[in-house]
Amino acid sequence: MNKAEIENFIQYFKGHESFTTEEIHAFFSENTADIKRATVNWRVHVLVKLGILKRKDRGVFSPGKELSFIPTPENKQSKISLLLKKQFPLIKFCSWHSQILKEFYHHIAVNNFIVIEVERDSIDSVF
Question: pTM for the full model?
Answer without folding.
Answer: 0.51
